[in-house]
């Protein structure tokens, strides 16, 4: 006679094995489990070998895994419903009725927990535990769970230890080690360790699996690095994708870096030079000589000594900005001989032609076309020196001024006892006239905005924004990854399970970090570490409090500017 | 990953009109410069025009006698009586006010007879015509008050430690007669209560009604200005009397708000003992008052520069440092509760407020119960900031601000279905 063999799984009690940890059986709803068969209350009828059974019935009851028909029937016909929780009592009132109710509910819970699970032997997938590699190898073909769990290697099917343990708890897989089946306790002891998955992480894993999510281990190397993200590589498993073409920029890479560096410098001359470099795509014929002149006029102001030395000046002044070496074209052109390039010195008092001829095109970057420049208006603005007047001339000037008005006629001026007070009076008057109080505007630190010069609100907000905004990825590469805040799992939504492909899972819904409730809250450093590992997928911290799990997400945010006119 | 921006929730009933985002003029005609006093580690604004502008344009500060905007009035109920709009107080309340006035007069050193006479005079019923006449001759009324005040020499001086400022009174214009009384109260910035008129009154008589010092002027009907109330004794009887005392309300600015107005907008001057403080002095004073002033000010300025209205004082209500409003509290519910944290260059926190998961969970629950989002604002200090640099507001440009939204994710499937991927 054919006998379907039945076996029954022991469910031992653990301290953290609460009734609510069982595979959740939603009441009144058919359990559409796309993964492993969740309910431990499987039952089927079978007929076992009576002879076998009778032998062991006598005497001591050996623990026999195979069920007798009566046991099987009992297992099948036991109630599938979870006990209904009644009304809560808020305080003990020492009544018999309350005591009885409490006892009954405790009994129900106890019987639930001590329930033995019954599984069809033929439905159990057999597997073996390989401790050296910390994986579980399937001996019989996998069931429905294979769609979302497990991996293939060397022609065989394998499961990760946490997956195996979860399937054991669900009653879908029986794991053997040295030809003996492992119990759940064995599973917890052996499969969970610091080198595989810790207990906390397993609790999170199991919690999410029971809710139907697809949870995979996180592999940091499968994520594109920040550099790859910068290049905007399309993220796919296929490594043979060609790189997207980078946008062509005329300046070579080192100088674009120096562009960004130089822009942050406060030196205006550096800015002007950078403008030259960045705007080479347009015809900047007017701009270039202007910046030339500005540069040279500033240099002439700062160096009045060598101003008269004349030509032979190099193009780039060493005292203007520190990192001059980056401004030199690095794309392989030969080093320029600066001593032979004569830079026009407009600041000196020598006579100059009234216009500048265009410079040698080989000195200019890119395809810049520079025309002739008229320098007379510029020369009139530089080198303004005080006119040296003889004593007679000065006296004449003073008389001319005095005829206008005698300052000593002013009462307030007369009240000033010394020059300091007079200066203060002047400052006050000036402030009052301009609407700028002296105590605000005449000191070292002045207000950011002058209320007497009204500007539209958007600009005002711009003026006020002194501190820079930062985002999570900024500076995050400096932060070394720590073990505590490593991302553990990728989590995919349950409704994607139907067409889930392990080889191409797509973007996860989120990534999980696991920590304990008594651990510290992640500070900005930890948040950045998580963000850098994850990229643009949100990271959720799972906080485990002895079986209770809460999830917190720390997301980057930039408050939008709200301009209400 | 970026947090989603959720649009702020508008309040169902909005009673106010939006004037301006910030108390600086957008056109060249008005020139506004405000004045505040730094008294006893608080910044107070006295001048009612300044109070009005500073509060209504940007929602800075809080009235010291009110919950939010300085709208304290002697009574919540106002009624029209023979063409005048007057606040209504009950008899018992009026008597209470009289007794307060009496105690103030006692404190000024008057003997009992003088006090009783004053109160008696105060509580005489006032004819409506007198009220109107007083309104029209606002200046006269003011002068009358001045004379009346001079009847009691040394009373004002005794009460307020600061000297009288006759300049203020002479500056009072007739068209601002409604604000007259509060101008005169500027003489005593320290004491809140000040007897408005020193007429004597008898507490036996019906308390005189004085209109309110707070000048909420309605264009019509006429508001007689401070000093008159309508006293009711529970039924229909209404009598116009003088108010025995007037409560002036000042606007209190928090340290960050005051510094923002001074430094970022340049429209406020803070005076300490009649001397205006420069920006650097103000910065150093505030820093000495509060050790983490730089962080909280950097966050405040950051949010203001985004056009949002941050209100301090969220600590007592929601357990956080700032509440962010769009446009202002009267228009929208607060959208974000902000906790300010300070981190160094390595993004390590120095624990201004060390969190545990327990307290974070609690704060998160509170915040979501009031339908707000919890935001952490990290102020990142660069490594090379010296103490000297920190002593000047110029260091603000070196700081960076990072905002992080903390939210709780519910793993149960119903929630996940609602969440869009």
UniProtKB/TrEMBL annotation, chain A:
PANTHER family found in the cross-reference section: TRNA-SPLICING ENDONUCLEASE SUBUNIT SEN54
Coiled coil feature spans: none
Positions of region (Disordered): 222-317
Protein name (Swiss-Prot/TrEMBL): tRNA-splicing endonuclease subunit Sen54
Recorded GO CC terms: tRNA-intron endonuclease complex
Feature: compositional bias, Polar residues: 222-237, 296-306
Protein biosynthesis recorded as keyword: no
Pfam families on file: tRNA_int_end_N2
Domain tRNA-splicing endonuclease subunit Sen54 N-terminal: from-to ranges: 111-177
InterPro entries listed in its UniProt record: tRNA_splic_suSen54, tRNA_splic_suSen54_N
Family from the record: Belongs to the SEN54 family.
A GO biological-process term: tRNA-type intron splice site recognition and cleavage
Taxonomic superkingdom: Eukaryota
Keyword Coiled coil part of the UniProt annotation: no
Ranges of Basic and acidic residues composition bias in the record: 264-295
Automatic annotation (TrEMBL), chain B:
Compartments reported by the entry: Nucleus
Ranges for region Disordered: 130-228
Coiled coil: none
TM region(s), chain numbering: none
Keyword Lyase annotated: yes
EC class of the enzyme, as a word: lyase
Composition skew (Basic and acidic residues), residue ranges: 130-152, 165-184
Positions of the catalytic residues: 325, 333, 372
Gene Ontology process terms (BP): mRNA processing; tRNA-type intron splice site recognition and cleavage
Pfam families given in the database record: tRNA_int_endo, tRNA_int_endo_N
Keyword Nuclease among UniProt keywords: yes
Molecular-function GO terms, alphabetical: nucleic acid binding; tRNA-intron lyase activity
Function description: Constitutes one of the two catalytic subunit of the tRNA-splicing endonuclease complex, a complex responsible for identification and cleavage of the splice sites in pre-tRNA. It cleaves pre-tRNA at the 5'- and 3'-splice sites to release the intron. The products are an intron and two tRNA half-molecules bearing 2',3'-cyclic phosphate and 5'-OH termini. There are no conserved sequences at the splice sites, but the intron is invariably located at the same site in the gene, placing the splice sites an invariant distance from the constant structural features of the tRNA body.
Name assigned to this protein: tRNA-splicing endonuclease subunit Sen2
Gene source species: Xyrichtys novacula (Pearly razorfish)
